[in-house]
Design goal:
The chain is of the alpha+beta class and 191 residues long. Helices cover 63% and strands 14% of the residues. Helix 1 (30-91) packs antiparallel against helix 2.
């Protein structure tokens, strides 16, 4: 037995001929069933958390992209205004104060644009890290589900080889509790 379990059904008695896929006896482990159910629920929760986090992060990223697009538009407008004011200043149409103010506003937006692009880059990398972390929780839950499913499948004790069921020194009976590692059946391969 792979886990502590109780014999609930004996399908084949000693002396019977069996094939590798024949089920010899059935074991039950209510605790294992509960662990499997809990693991499946944990996997579903991890997958739901991943999707929720992904939506939340995408929404935040879209907000940052919208802000970056607005800054970029303002940057383009102020660049044109600063270029126009510089030309008008050279012609003497506007004062040096107006020209300087336009240039300062443009330089300020140039810095904001640079910072905005850095924020987008950092945010995109942070999204990858957060989603990778959430994915690892899914993978961990999936591994646990696979383990419990394997242990649950082993509660149906199969012959494994073709041959004859041998009698054990201590015969199994319905209701017998066995600990992990206890032999519950033996098949002798016939020549």
């Amino acid at each position: 037995a792979l886990t502590d379990a109780t014999v609930v059904r004996i399908r084949v008695l000693p002396g019977a001929k069996v094939t590798p896929d024949d089920i010899l006896l059935d074991l039950a482990d209510p605790q294992l069933n509960q662990q499997l159910l809990s693991a499946k629920l944990a996997q579903q929760q991890a997958e739901a958390d991943y999707k929720s986090l992904q939506s939340q992060l995408q929404s935040t990223l879209m907000d940052k992209r919208t802000t970056a697009a607005q800054i970029d538009a303002d940057y383009s407008t102020d660049k044109r205004q600063a270029d126009t004011d510089a030309q008008l200043c050279k012609l003497g149409v506007v004062s040096g104060l107006v020209c300087g103010a336009s240039q300062n506003k443009f330089e300020q937006l140039a810095e904001q644009k640079k910072i905005s692009m850095q924020q987008l880059d950092v945010n995109e990398k942070a999204i990858e890290v957060q989603l990778s972390s959430a994915q690892s929780k899914i993978d961990q839950a999936k591994t646990l589900v696979d383990l419990y499913q394997k242990q649950t499948a082993a509660l149906e004790v199969k012959a494994g080889i073709g041959g004859e069921v041998a009698a054990l020194p201590t015969p199994m009976q319905v209701g017998t509790h066995v600990t992990a590692g206890t032999p519950v059946a033996e098949v002798i391969q016939l020549d």
